[in-house]
Amino acid sequence: MSNLQAFFAHNKKKQDNIKRAISKSFVDENGNAVEWEFAPISPERDAELKSESTKRSLITQGKRKGQYNTDFDHFKYQRLLTVESIVFPNLNDKELQDSYGVLGADELLGKMLTIGEIAEAAAAAQAANGYEVELDELVEEVKN
What we know:
By secondary structure, the chain is α+β, with helices and mostly antiparallel strands. The protein contains six helices and five strands, in the order E-E-H-E-E-H-E-H-H-H-H. The longest helix has 14 residues, at about 115-130. InterPro entries: XkdN-like, XkdN-like_sf. This is Phage portal protein.
């Protein structure tokens, strides 16, 4: 196989989903923590999440009056990426949302997990999407 053929679509290895026990609060009948499953999202969906996390605001004073500032909310993006990457449990399940009295996957995640567990889920989502991030770095970022 030539070096170029290694890049052909039929030779590309499929990325497996990542399974991790995110919380000790959810256990099976044997008392073992139930694993959550994370899958990569498409580049197109990633672009949509980045767009949802970006805000443009009109500058009304100073030398740049009439121009726009573009502000990217990294924390919002990370939360959206995490929610979007979780395939199990299904955070969009109406019965699951009803059991917590919430509407929406993002709100459900906030009710189900502690902030430390959300950081763990965010690290798993990043890993599923090909980011090489250490959990310690993510925890430090959340603290700041």
